[in-house]
Each structure stands twice: as C-alpha cells, then as structure tokens.
Amino acid sequence: MRPDAQPAATLLYSPRSPVKGRGTVWAIEHRFTSDAREAFDDGWGALEQAAQEEHVAPGTELVEENVKSILSGNDSPDISFDLSINPYRGCEHGCIYCFARPTHSYLNLSPGLDFETRIIAKVNAAERLRQALSRPGYQPLPLNIGSATDAYQPVERRLRITRSVIEVLAEAQHPFSVITKSAGIERDIDLIAPMAARRMASAYVSITTLDPQLARILEPRAASPQRRLQTVKALSAAGIRVGVSVSPVIPFINEPEVEQIMAAAAEAGASTAFSIVLRLPWEVNPLFQQWLQQHFPDRADRVMARIREMRGGKDNDAHFGSRMRGKGVWAELLHQRVKKAAARLGLDRERIPLDFSQFRRPQTAAQQAQGSLF
Description:
There is one protein chain. This protein starts with 45 loop residues before the first helix and ends with a helix. It has a single domain, classed as pyruvate-formate lyase- activating enzyme (Alpha-Beta Horseshoe), CATH 3.80.30. It is an alpha/beta fold. α9 links the parallel β9 and β10. α3 (125-134) runs parallel beside α5. It has 13 helices and ten strands. It is globular and about 65 Å long. It has helices at residues 46-52, 113-117, 125-134, 156-159, 161-172, 189-197, 212-218, 225-237, 258-268, 284-295, 300-310, 329-345, 365-371; strands spanning 61-65, 72-73, 83-85, 88-89, 118-122, 143-145, 176-180, 201-206, 242-245, 272-274. Residues 81-309 form the Elp3/MiaA/NifB-like radical SAM core domain. Pfam families: Radical_SAM.
C-alpha cells in the first residue's frame, strides 16, 4: 500500500442498495490500487438518482487459467492441515464475510463485486496435482480442499475440476478433507465414501444460520440451510465422517443460533462441530460494515462494539492463536457455549486420524503414455 493511501476501512462506499443474488455490488478498490476514487455530486442530483435506481444483479464471468502449481502450504498453527487445494479463485456464493475476499487484490481485482463475479477456474488443477504427487521427494501431509474458495460453487457442475482433483487423490490413496456450503458435494460421494471407509477422507459442511431469510443476504448463492442439513445427512449415511463449521459467528446476528445450529447438525448425522468468530481482514472490514448498515442499521453499532471487544479494541486481529477464537470475556463465553453444546449433543468426538500409509505415487501423464507403448 502507498504511504499516502487510505486504509481499506476508511474508503468511501457505493450508495447502491443491495441487489438480490449478490453479497455486495460495491466494487471496492483493493489495497494495492494506486488511484483513489469517490462518488461526486455534479449538482444535477446524480448521486441521489443512482441510489434510487433499481440495479440488476451483475452476471458472472469465468476466466480459465492454467496454473503452475496447485498445492499451497500452510504455516498457521490455527489450522489443522498443512496443504490446501483451491480449484477456483473467487467464489460465486457471495458470502459477505468471506475472509478470502482480499486474495482478489493480488489479481488486481476488487475484493468486493469482482470476488463473486470474476471467477478464475484452474482448469489444469488435476494435471498439476498429479505432477506434484509423483515427485520422488513428495511426502503426504494433511490436505484440505476448499479453504479459500468453495470447491463446489455453481461452475463446478460444468467444469468438474474438483472432481478431477479428487480422482487423482483417490488414485494415489492420498488422504484429504473438504469443506463446503454446497450440496454439490453429494455428486462425488462415489469417490469420497470409499476413501472415508479406509480413513482417508472426511467432509465438513459450513452452516452459518438456520434462518433462510438471513442466509439469502449473508451468503446469497450458497445452498439454503435446510439443503445443507440434507447434505450432512447424505454424507453421513454414506459412511463419511462429517463435521459442521458454525462459522463465522457474528455477534447479535447469527450468534443467538449457535446451539440450535449444532442441534440440527447432530440430528442430521454430524459427528463434530466447531466455530470461528468473525474475521475482518483488509477490505472485508468496510464491505461487512456497509452490509451491516444496509441490513441491520438498528444493531450495527452493537455488533461492531462486540467485535472490537473480542479483537483487543480493533476491528480485526490477525495474530495466530487469537484470530480464529478471539479474546476476552465474550470470546471465552462463546467458546464455552460451543464446547458445552458439543458435549451435550455428541459433537465433541475427536477427529479420526487419517491414514497416510496407503499413499502410492501416481504416474504422470508422460509415464502413462510411455507405459502404453509396451
């Protein structure tokens, strides 16, 4: 960021009203932008007119990309996996709170509107994964699919990139976990269930609220809460160990529902549950605060005051150890609520250790082609 640039939290935002089907219509400038722009009243009522106009939800643009690598390393002690695979950049689900929104800044795109309308598809993901796993020095490590995007967002139905990745993992007998808000994962039960039976796969479903009206504005293009519960039931019935992420917890918005969400998840067949308090890194902060003012103006100040209480007086805390859980009285109270509800509902079972002993190095495309000649 330039020394004289405004921090993301102070950027002016678009006066536009919410648009159905999108988390935001604000094309907020990212933190690396060299130019700053703001709305200007030309004296002809342009700003007022723009605010009153009805806006059509912007369409989604898909950009296919051939990537050099697909495995990303993780050095955070707050996360239980060492490697991640994100088949896409950006996510059409449009969750306003998504901590991954700022990653679009590295593409010179807006973490706001562009994040949910400019989707980058890593079309050669399976090929790059095969190459990585086939290297002589590669050693299998805990791997998660979908940590910074939803691997089953709508475009996956057509492109099937996530499925091709899981096919390579299944061939190599490489353990993995996957987290999603989409019922689309049910399509791949035929691949995941056999691996789960051999302690090589687990699934997590994120359920933020049971209120369909709140879900429509909080995560507008994700599956409905009831549909996600059906997905938990389908995965569990197939023998796949399912955890539920009640995340993020937003004070006075979905926080009162925490125990009800966990109870519904347990009834659907989940075996574990956890929660993460709301994080507001970089451009997510002004985006979320605008959303609050638009949808919950009566409690916006209370929500932000409680968030700052958990974050040492700041809007966000990026420190390892506290960024997921928060700190202070309210954060500890929330932790105890989740812990006690999990114990009462049988959702406090430890993760089953995944079995890495069955890993077998896959052949590259060149090796497969060579073998077919003999």
